[in-house]
Amino acid sequence: MSTRPGPAPLLIACALGIEHLALRTGDRGGAGGPVAVLRTGMGPRAAEQSVTRVLAGPPLARAAVLATGFCAGLAPGMHPGDLVVAEETRDPRGTVPCVGTELLVKELARTLPGRTVHTGPLTGSDHVVRGSERSELRAAGAIAADMESAATLLSAVRTGARPVAAVRVVVDAPEHELVRIGTVRGGITAFRVLRSVLPTFFEWHRNVLLPRR
């Protein structure tokens, strides 16, 4: 007698301790299957190594992967606490299309009414982007930048076919650059928003697990 496998897990990957804290203290109810929150460490190399390692083992080998945390907004008019849903992630090594972008936008609007949600390409960097570099990345088509999302999703799809997505919270923007996360109002706002997004991630997970028709 064969046993049907359980639902594929969800791996939520972030880089910083403060991001991990926000996710661990958020609403954990309503997950559509097993959920793991991974703190990868800062930077694309750390993200690549951590994600590749955890997806190699049986517990998470089939996991859907969602990259999250804070990001730098690139477009004028963005504010701390705005949300970014990636249509794709990109870095010099390649581009990864995201799954379920429209669902994430819809659920974020429902879960966090009043918060602005931006969609578009999310670009990867190996350092914190500031000043004129933001304008250069914006001119190339990206709406936001961070150090880990592109490496996380690229590592995930290279390990095996799976749904992937990236949702980031703007912690600073062209008119609101921060020196240190968590010490000024923008960082605190972003932390509170990140604490509130887990129900959206779980809804995305449940839907990407449904059989495709």
Describe the structure.
The protein has 213 residues and is α/β, with parallel strands linked by helices. It is built from seven helices and eight strands. Strands 3-7-6-4-8 form a five-stranded mixed barrel, surrounded by five helices. Strand 4 (83-91) and strand 5 (94-97) form a beta hairpin. Helix 1 (17-24) crosses helix 6, helix 2 (44-56) runs parallel beside helix 5 (149-159) and helix 3 (101-111) packs antiparallel against helix 7 (198-208). The longest helix is centred in the first third of the chain and has 13 residues, at 44-56. The model is unreliable at 179-184 (pLDDT under 50).
Fill in the keyword field for this structure.
alpha/beta, globular, 25% strand, 8 strands, 213 residues
Radius of gyration: 16 Å
Low-confidence sequence ranges:
179-184
Straight-line distance between termini: 27 Å
Number of helices: 7
The secondary structure category is alpha/beta
Number of beta-strand segments: 8
Largest sheet: 5 strands, mixed, barrel
Shape: globular
Amount of beta strand: 15-25%
Topology pattern, helix = H, strand = E = EHEHEEEHEHEHEHH
Helix content: 25-40%
Strand order of the largest sheet: 3-7-6-4-8
Would you tell me the overall average pLDDT? Answer: 87
Helices and strands in order, then pairings?
Elements lengths: L9 E5 L2 H8 L10 E5 L4 H13 L7 E10 L9 E9 L2 E4 L3 H11 L5 E8 L7 H8 L4 E3 L2 H11 L4 E9 L12 H11 L2 H11 L5
Parallel strand pairs: 1-2, 1-3, 3-8, 4-6, 6-7
Antiparallel strand pairs: 3-7, 4-5, 4-8
Helix pairs in contact: 1-6, 2-5, 3-7
